[in-house]
Structures are given as C-alpha cells and as structure tokens.
C-alpha cells in the first residue's frame, strides 16, 4: 500500500517534504508524528535525527528549521485515504468484503461504508442528460 494520498497531506507536511524529501519525511512522521521537535542549529552525524533521516536530509532540516519547534503531523487523513483507495481497488478486482475486513483490521460494516463513500448512487440522475 502506498502510505499517503498526497491530496490529503497537510500544508506543513508538504513544506517538510520540500525541505527533506519524501522518504525522510515519511520516516520523520512514522517516528515523531504527533509530537513537537526542536531542530538543532547544527546537525551532527550522531544526532538521532541524522541517524533516522540521513545526514543530508537532517542538515537540510536544520538549515530550514534551526532552533524552531516543529509540530510533526501524523498524516492520518492521507494514510486513510490511500488505504481506502486501495481497498476499493481490491474490491473491484474481486476481493471479498470479509477478506478486506481481515486484511485492514476493520469490521465488515466499516468496509462497506468505505466502499460506499465514493460510489455514485444508482438512483442519482444526470442533470444534463437528455432522457
């Protein structure tokens, strides 16, 4: 599963991706999501952020956010949107609701709700059709 649907990323995370790159941002969110970090003015290779992100990305983070307290977002809306899109694709390919519920650790009822969220209503008519 792709971890994020980029249409649902918060602006702060898009900014972070611009600074450090996509993969380092994913790592930062996976470890520090939902917390506040103080970014050091000088990044050394032994710093935990450098070990997590790689020295180049950590130094870019330091140059951009030196001594700032950064709220690291969780990206939960983007993660759920990607999960839901993937779930719909699997269902369209023939995977049962029961299997989807087990795979994503959801109830069958919740899977049905997710599948129905973007499904066009069969009773809805097109305003511009000539029928």
Automatic annotation (TrEMBL):
SUPFAM superfamilies for the chain: Homeodomain-like (SSF46689)
Protein name per the record: Mor transcription activator domain-containing protein
InterPro entries noted in UniProt: Homeodomain-like_sf, Mor_transcription_activator
Residues in Mor transcription activator domain copies: 48-117
Superkingdom classification of source: Bacteria
Coiled coil: none
Lineage per the UniProt record: Bacteria, Pseudomonadati, Pseudomonadota, Gammaproteobacteria, Pseudomonadales
Source species: Marinobacter halodurans
Any one Pfam family match given in the protein's UniProt record, by short name: Mor
């Amino acid at each position: 599963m792709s971890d994020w649907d980029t249409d649902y990323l918060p602006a702060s995370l898009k900014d972070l991706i611009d600074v450090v790159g996509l993969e380092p941002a994913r790592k930062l969110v996976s470890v520090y999501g939902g917390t506040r970090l103080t970014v050091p003015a000088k990044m050394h290779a032994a710093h935990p952020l450098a070990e997590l992100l790689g020295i180049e990305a950590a130094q870019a983070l330091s140059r951009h956010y030196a001594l700032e307290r950064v709220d690291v977002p969780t990206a939960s809306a983007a993660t759920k949107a990607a999960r839901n899109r993937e779930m719909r694709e699997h269902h369209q390919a023939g995977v049962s609701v029961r299997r989807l519920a087990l795979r994503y650790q959801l109830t069958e009822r919740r899977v049905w709700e997710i599948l129905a969220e973007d499904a066009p209503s069969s009773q809805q008519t097109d305003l511009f059709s000539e029928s």
